Amino acid sequence: MQFIFRSTFFKVLTLFSVLVIIFTLNFSAIGQNPASSGLRKIVIDPGHGGSDPGTVGSHTREKDITLSISLKVGTLIKNNFSDVDLIYTRKDDRFVPLDERTRIANAEKADLFISIHCNANTSKSPYGAETYVLGLHRSEDNLDVAMRENAVIAYEEDYSSKYEGYDPKSTESFIIFNLMQNAYLDQSLKLANNVQTEIKAQARRYDRGVKQAGFLVLWKTSMPSILIEVGFLSNVREEAFLMSNEGQEQIASAIFKAFSEYKKLIDNHTSFTSIVKSEAVKEDSIKPDEEKTVVENKPDIVFKIQVKSSKKRIPITPKNFKNYKGVDEIKVDGTYKYMIGSKKSYSEIIELCKQLKKSFPGAFVVALKGDTIIPIDTALKELSL
Ligand SMILES: [Zn+2]
To answer: Ligand 1 centre and the CA of 341: distance in Å?
Structure first.
């Protein structure tokens, strides 16, 4: 009984969270649409602060590095773009709860949210920069980074009710994130790719790539948002670089360059913007003619749901696939994989996956380019170009 109660409770909790997210995103897609008027307002979020030092290196603390780099990025933006309003979640060494950072960005109706952090590892060897967009964790490493950054809420009183039951130490809490969608994923991915390119080119840091994970600080932002881990304080050489004024200026200048490129794209209403706008409209109502526009602009990538796989061929009969029609069979390395559905939009396939999980609990999303299965990250990156 105890188990059944908990399970039902968790489902209700999860459903509630999802409804909140969908409401927040849809509301913003209708009422705000940052892409329509160009990029005019940015929130810069220096990670940690006050009683929360973040990760601690041999000689420095994350909260000091993130503040210093954030202020440098802000100064560059202020000096070069008179049409951009700049808002910081903190400008000095103070504690700001994660939900307050998000609240500031949403209340200001910002067009962009950039959170700046430093990485750490139990091993001293990892180094380099990586940029995250909100999404599903693709690996244990991504999950570790997200859980470390999210753990800050333990400094806040009553975090359990504020974050709808989220427990920073529980992997189970991340189930909530597995059901979420992000209306601004395409734009966030574009900026994240710019940041990684420039950090490699300008600051000559090792490029660890664009990644997805469930960060609480990005969770409810109603705008494109990224979280940059500028480098590892657990690596002695990288810590020295990040502590130096020159190192911080190089990182800040790389982020500024990435921002400038992204702003140009949004302001010029290029095809990228129109694709993103069509996608945003599709969140509310699917219109066939708009769908066609999107399809023509994007590479030949579709998302499907894998519902079964087997070394032995499974006859495609209604009985074997719970009366679902349109089952595709693909043979990969001697294994037969069975898929249902075909969507160009990642958020739509996530919705379909939720429904299919009721009949096929192990169902998951796959991306196909032609007949080949490709990593979801790669598909999303290609679709965002
Ligand atoms: Zn951090």
So the answer is: 38
Tell me the CA–centroid distance for residue 368 and ligand 1, in Å: 34
Structure-block tokens of residue 89: 């979640």
State in Å: Cα 30 to ligand 1 middle. Answer: 32
- What's the CA gap between 281 and 34, in Å, rounded? 13
pLDDT tens, 315-345? 888 888 888 888 888 887 788 888 888 888 7
Cα 363 to middle of ligand 1, angstroms: 33
Cα 119 to averaged position of ligand 1 atoms, centre (Å): 7
Give yes or no for a contact between 223 and 87, defined as CB atoms under 8 angstroms apart.
no
Torsional sign, CA 238, 241, 244, 247 = negative
DSSP 129: E
* Chain centroid offset of residue 205 CA: 22
327 CA → ligand 1 middle, Å: 44
Q: Ligand 1 centre and the CA of 384: distance in Å?
A: 26
Is 250's pLDDT higher than 90? Answer: yes
Ligand 1 center to residue 274 CA distance, Å?
Answer: 34
- Distance from residue 354's CA to the centre of ligand 1 (Å): 31
Domains and CATH numbers, the chain: 2-273 (3.40.630.40), 299-384 (3.30.70)
CA of residue 364 to ligand 1 center, whole Å: 30
ipTM of the complex: 0.99
For residue 227, list its beta bridge partners.
115, 132
- Smallest Cα–Cα separation from 30: which of 280, 236, 221? 280
Q: pLDDT tens across 263-285, in order?
A: 999 888 644 443 333 333 333 33
CB 46 within 8 A of CB 70: yes
- Rounded distance from Cα 89 to ligand 1 centre (Å): 14
Under a CB-based contact definition with an 8 Å cutoff, are residues 190 and 265 in contact? Answer: yes
Amino acid present at 87: I
Q: How many other CB atoms are found less than 10 A from the CB of residue 136? A: 19
In the chain, what is the straight-line distance between the N-terminal and C-terminal CA atoms, in Å? 50
How far does the centroid of ligand 1 lie from the alpha carbon of residue 332, in Å?
Answer: 40
